[in-house]
Amino acid sequence: MRTSTRTPHRAVVVAAVVALGAGLLGGCAEDSDDPDGGPGNSGTDAGGRTTIEIGTFGVFGYKQAGLYDEYMKLHPEILIKEDVTERVDTYYPELLTHLAANSGLQDIQAIEVGNINEIATTQADKFEDLSKAPGVDKSNWLDWKWAQGTTKDGRTVALGTDIGPMGMCYRKDLFEKAGLPTDREAVGRLWAGDWQKYVEAGKRYKAKGPKGTAFTDSAAGLFAAVNNGYAERFYDADGELIYKDSPAVKTAWDVAMQAVEGGLTAKLKQFDKAWDQAYANGTFATVSCPPWMLGYIKEKAGAAGEDKWDVAAAPKPANWGGSFIGVPKAGRNKAEAVKLAAWLTAPEQQAKLFDKQASFPSTPPAYELDAVSGARNPYFGDAPTGRLFAEAAKGIPTLVLGPKDQQIGTAFGDVGILQVEQQGKSPEQGWEAALKEIDNAVDGG
C-alpha cells in the first residue's frame, strides 16, 4: 500500500533538511550502537543472525500478514526488522537524503509509485539491479508495473509490490439511513461510468443522511480517484509537463470543487489523525478505496466498523497507489536483502498479502491462486474483493509517470484543495496556490 497521492508532500528541500537533522540526531550508519543490527553495525544480532532492515511507510502489511515470521521460520539465520514511517512525505525526502550520503539506508527500501520514476531516472546507480536476481521472473509482473521500476537500459531498480485498482468503500448503515441502496451491486449502479453520478448520489445523501456525517471524507481523495483514471495527467507521453492544461486534472479538479461547494465532504486531510479518528467515529459514508485502503480502514475503524463497511465498483477504472521495494547498494547485507525482496514480491507472497491485508498483487499469476480468485473480505460484508478488484484492474490505463508526480499530486490535494475545503478560499484561489507550489517544486528540483 501506501500513498503518493496517498499522502502529502511539502517542499522537498525543507523536508530534506529536516530529515537530515533527524538522521543525525537518530544516529548515522556509522554511529549506531544498536545490538540487534541497527544501521552501521555488523548487521547481526546477539545470536549471530543476519539482520535485514526494511524501511517502509504507512501500513505495508508484510508484518501484519505474517510474511516476516514465515520467512524467518524458513531461514532461522535471518532476523527481519521493519522501520516504519507513517507518511511518505516524511519518508521519501529522508530516503533521498540518505541516498545522497550513501549512509543511513535500510537493506531494503520501499518506494511509492509516485516516486518510482524519479528513482529510476535519477537514483538508479544507487540500487542493485534486480532484473536477474535469483527467484525473479519478469514475466510474473504486469508489463507496465515492471517497466515502472526499470531504467531505459534495462536495469530493474525495484520490484513491484501491489497495484491500486479503484473501488468505492461505503458505510451500509449510513446509506440505509439516507435512503440509499446498500447492496454493493446496486450501489455500484448508482454511479456506474460517471463521476458526476457520484456527486449526484452525494447530494441525495446530504439531503437525508444522519446529522454530523458527510458523504465523503475529502475532496483531495476524490481528486486523486478521478485523476488517476486517465493515462496522461501531469506529464504527457513525451515526458513534458502538462498539469496546467491537462484534461484529467481539470476534470478531477471540477469534480472535487463540486463536492466542496455542495458540502459533501468531511473536510479531512487524508492520513492525518483526524481522518483516522473519523473512521472510528463513522463520520463519513464513502471513501475512494483501492485494495490497500481496505486494510487501512480495518485498522482504523476497528471492531466497531466490521460489517458496516462494504465495497462497490468505482464509477470508472483507475489506479491509485502501489509500491515497490529496492535494495540500496550502500546496504550492509545486499545478497540476503535481494533474496528477501524476491521472496516478498513473488506471486505466492503477493497472494498471501492480499488475503490478509487486501493489497492487490501486481503479479497476474497470483490472480489464479485461491487466495485471490476466491477472496472474500469478512470485515467488508464478505465482499468478493478478489473478483471485484481483478475486474477493476482490467480497465486501468497505463499511467504516464514523471519525476515529480508525487509532489504535483500533493500540491493539488494538500495545498490547493485544502485551501478551498478548509480555509474557505475560492476554487480559483486554490488553483493558483497549487500551481505556485508545483512551479516551486518543479523549478527547484
TrEMBL record:
Nucleus is among the record's keywords: no
UniProt keyword Signal present: yes
Region feature Disordered, mapped onto this chain: 29-49
Pfam families noted in UniProt: SBP_bac_8
Keywords: Signal
Domain of life assignment: Bacteria
Signal peptide: 1-29
Protein name per its UniProtKB record: Extracellular solute-binding protein
Organism this protein belongs to: Streptomyces enissocaesilis
